[in-house]
Specification:
Elements lengths: L1 E5 L2 E5 L12 E5 L5 H9 L2 E5 L3 H15 L21 H17 L2 E5 L14 H8 L7 E4 H16 L1 E3 L4 E3 L12 H8 L10 E4 L5 H8 L5 E5 L2 H13 L6 E5 L6 H4 L2 E6 L22 H13 E12 L1 H4 L5 H10 L2 E9 L14 H5 L3 E8 L7
Parallel strand pairs: 3-4, 4-5, 9-10, 9-12, 10-11, 12-13
Antiparallel strand pairs: 1-2, 5-6, 7-8, 13-15, 14-15
């Protein structure tokens, strides 16, 4: 619950935070008379601003707070938004993450009260009830307080869900749901669409951690008769099910809620097992970040360790992985190869591709140099001694 005082009365409401952040302890009412500099001082002190003015002015204030937070230092080489030399990683990466977390914390202190039907009782407020319902389900029986930044995130997710993401490898669009990572980086999809299928893969393949279902759909479109796609997150399962139904592939792709691999006793071994784990070994600060950050490389190492027990003799495990972690000095290539060897696997081949997304060539932050050098790879892995698994 979040608590504040209004018109001489103590009030409270349920607090909603996707990241699980605690409700702010100090809350003051704010409206159009609050200057941006004064608002910035308040949020820096940890005081939340519950907005009671014109809604569009709240959005303007949020933009003003962003500008003040992101102002480069007046002294120091290049300012805090400049790319740093590779020799300064991983320390620079951790500082960058701390700065991101601080930015999110400060911007998250501008609050909006939502009515029981998800409407916003402010002047010039848009009707975002559908977006809120998609993100958070049926409304509660009482008003709810959420940060404006999080509300805008729900609306952005709604827009992605409406228009979808074009996936040329599918010749169709994928529709991500709120809280499910969007496949906007199409290069890894192209790798899966183009790599030669191993013998027997036309009959069965597993995909580990399906997310939106895009890679399972690509495999099915490539002629794999049966794909078993696993996922632990309930939002992602619902998203994948929606996308596979839209594509008419629900009869060829079986979704299974489980951590990593389907049970071998039920599903046996597959000639092809595909996994696109999170690429960076760091702690996620929100559920959607689990698609990017994997603390201690848990999913990557779990996939490699479990692969021999689920892979058919002479089959292939396809590991889709960026080398960004290597450029950030969060993981070495030797460590990755060591995990592969220790798991009883060998590298059959590797297909590389350069990222095409906008951040790969754009500057503007400390990680720009690392992103410019990034390569995404599809590692084709086989059993070190396939005859022993026969």
């Amino acid at each position: 619950m979040i608590h504040w005082s209004e018109h001489g009365e103590d009030r409270s409401a349920p607090w909603r935070s996707e990241s699980g952040a605690s409700a702010p302890r100090r809350v003051v009412l704010a409206d159009d008379t609050l200057a941006a500099d004064a608002a910035y001082r308040l949020v820096c002190e940890g005081t939340a601003l519950l907005w009671r003015g014109d809604f569009q002015n709240a959005r303007h204030l949020l933009d003003a707070l962003k500008r003040r937070i992101e102002r480069p230092r007046k002294s120091g080489k290049g300012g805090r938004n400049s790319a740093v030399p590779a020799a300064e990683f991983p320390h620079a990466f951790h500082l960058h993450r701390q700065a991101q977390a601080q930015r999110a914390r400060l911007l998250g202190l501008l609050l909006i009260e939502l009515q029981p039907d998800w409407s916003i009782a402010l002047r010039r407020a848009p009707d975002w009830r559908a977006a809120c319902a998609e993100a958070w389900g049926p409304a509660l029986q009482e008003p709810t307080v959420v940060s404006l930044r999080e509300l805008l995130g729900a609306v952005g997710a709604h827009e992605w869900r409406c228009k979808g993401v074009d996936v040329p490898a599918l010749g169709a669009r994928i529709y991500p749901h709120y809280g499910v990572f969007s496949p906007v980086r199409g290069e890894y999809v192209d790798l899966v669409a183009q790599a030669p299928l191993p013998p027997g893969a036309d009959a069965l393949a597993f995909e580990i951690g399906t997310g939106t279902g895009v890679l399972a759909a690509v495999l099915a479109r490539r002629g794999v008769a049966r794909v078993v796609a696993t996922e632990l997150d309930t939002r992602a399962l619902a998203c994948a099910r929606d996308n596979l139904t839209r594509l008419g592939l629900e009869d060829r792709v079986q979704l299974l809620q489980t951590d990593l691999f389907p049970p071998a006793t039920t599903f046996g071994r597959a000639p092809l097992i595909v996994c696109n784990p999170p690429w960076l070994p760091a702690k996620a600060s929100a559920p959607i970040e689990r698609a990017v950050y994997d603390e201690d490389s848990r999913m990557l190492r779990g996939f490699l360790t479990g692969l021999p027990a689920h892979l058919a003799p002479h089959g292939e495990g396809w590991l889709i992985l960026s080398d960004l972690a290597e450029h950030l000095r969060l993981r070495t290539r030797d460590a990755l190869l060591g995990w592969i060897g220790t798991a009883g696997l060998r590298v059959l081949d590797r297909h590389d591709i350069r990222p095409r997304h906008a951040k790969a060539t754009a500057g503007g932050d400390a990680l720009a140099g690392a992103r410019a050098a990034e390569v995404t790879s599809l590692w084709r892995l086989g059993l070190a001694s396939p005859t022993q698994q026969s």
